[in-house]
TrEMBL record:
It comes from Arenibacter algicola. Catalyzes the transfer of a dimethylallyl group onto the adenine at position 37 in tRNAs that read codons beginning with uridine, leading to the formation of N6-(dimethylallyl)adenosine (i(6)A). Residues 36-39 are annotated as: Interaction with substrate tRNA. This is tRNA dimethylallyltransferase. SUPFAM superfamilies: P-loop containing nucleoside triphosphate hydrolases.
């Protein structure tokens, strides 16, 4: 039986992934799987750039605002649920579109995850509280002691990665790296990855504009409504952490906004670093020609 095709749209934040994903889904009369881990939570709309109601209505979307910040939803949970959803969608579609800039979540669907032991959720709660009260440096130093190999390779500015590694180290008593690079499951679909890119100045300008638009749409009010929940794992992310610091008095508002823009630019840089390590990616300019992309996809399709 011929394999089905998953078209994965990736690229730095604010580059226009949603627009391309919707255009492709309309062309192929199919549906969209979101692999943006920030957009899973219904309480977070503005700061995560959730697609507009018009965009969501134009094509069926899955895994957008389907969870609450009070619910635990790991990348392993996403992998299991998204693979099940894909099996259903592939019954009626030869192609499904996936879109998102969360590299770990994209890789989980394309390649599968390493297997980790079940960890007591209280460990993560404690680590999140440590992040808020003592800062990211305390997590970095602890990881340096518990798993120096992973400390040397992980993005030390990413609290999600630090907390994930530490909770495994603490909960299992073994280094996080001891669970990596295991044999992955074989997927019964072919993945075609399309990465949107632009010159750095253009990406940075689009990011700055997006942050300004978020503020106009009410980002400050959204974050204020979540202040009492700021230790939750879902809220340890750019756009929220900086404004929590503003509400605590650590920053004035202009400084907090500048920090959001700076940290978002750093996030975009990390996304591109992740992508450049990948093979077999179709790179397209942000001012792409849709017909040219469709031709490239047809050349890559199986079945």
């Amino acid at each position: 039986m011929s394999k089905k095709n998953l078209i994965s749209i990736v690229g730095p934040t604010a580059i226009g992934k949603t627009t391309l994903a919707i255009a492709l889904a309309k062309h192929y009369k199919t549906e969209i799987i979101s692999a943006d881990s920030r957009q899973f939570y219904k309480e977070m709309s503005i700061g995560t750039a959730v697609p507009s109601q018009e965009e969501l209505a134009s094509v069926p979307h899955h895994f957008i605002q389907h969870k609450s910040i009070f619910e635990e939803f790991t990348v392993g949970d996403f992998e299991r649920e998204a693979i099940k959803k894909l099996e259903i969608l592939f019954e009626d579609n030869d192609i499904v579109v996936m879109v998102g800039g969360s590299g770990l979540y994209v890789d989980a669907i394309k390649d599968g995850l390493d297997s980790f032991p079940t960890i007591d959720p209280k460990i993560r709660e404690t680590l999140n509280e440590t992040l808020v009260t003592q800062g990211i440096l305390s997590l970095q130093e602890r990881l340096k002691i518990m798993d120096r190999d992973y400390y040397d390779q992980v993005d030390l500015s990413n609290p999600h990665r630090l907390i994930r590694a530490l909770e495994v180290c603490i909960g299992s008593g073994l280094p996080y790296t001891s669970f990596l690079n295991q044999k992955k499951p074989e997927r019964n679909f072919n993945t075609i990855t399309i990465a949107i890119n632009a010159d750095r100045e253009i990406i940075y300008d689009r990011i700055n504009q997006r942050v300004d638009i978020m503020l106009e749409l009410g980002l400050l009010e959204e974050v204020a409504s979540l202040k009492d929940q700021q230790t939750l794992n879902a809220l340890q992310t750019v756009g929220y952490r900086e404004l929590f610091s503003y509400f605590k008095g650590d920053y004035d508002l202009n400084t907090a906004i500048a920090e959001i823009k700076k940290n978002t630019r750093r996030f975009a840089k990390r996304q591109l670093t992740w992508l450049r390590k990948k093979e077999d990616i179709l790179w397209v300019d942000y001012e792409y020609n849709l017909n040219e992309i469709l031709e490239k996809i047809d050349q890559k399709r199986t079945g």
